[in-house]
């Protein structure tokens, strides 16, 4: 346990109100690993973070920018990236 309070799920509203220079926001629960950063210019970028099973190091992959990439699409890409990184095959159901 890290001692940090449990966070809340990200929302489109929270992303819209992010200010440049503020702290990154992270999703929780099944979407753990999805982060959003707001740069100095105000561009909000989605990132997927995971630990590499090969190197054991933290890997960060850019998914895209908000609002061109919606929160729903970013979460879908997060899950696809996690499956690919784990080496599991995606279900065709």
TrEMBL record:
This is Integrase DNA-binding domain-containing protein. It holds the Pfam family Arm-DNA-bind_3. It comes from the Bacteria. Residues 10-82 form the Integrase DNA-binding domain. InterPro entries: Integrase_DNA-bd_sf, Integrase_DNA_bind_dom. It comes from Pantoea ananas.
């Amino acid at each position: 346990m890290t001692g940090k309070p449990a966070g809340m799920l990200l929302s489109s509203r929270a992303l819209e109100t992010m200010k440049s220079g503020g702290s990154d926001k992270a999703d929780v629960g099944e979407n753990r690993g999805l982060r959003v950063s707001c740069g100095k210019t105000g561009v909000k970028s989605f990132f997927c973070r995971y630990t590499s099973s090969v190197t054991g190091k933290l890997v960060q992959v850019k998914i895209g920018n908000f609002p061109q990439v919606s929160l729903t699409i970013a979460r879908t890409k997060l899950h696809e990236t996690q499956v690919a990184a784990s080496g599991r095959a995606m279900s065709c159901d």
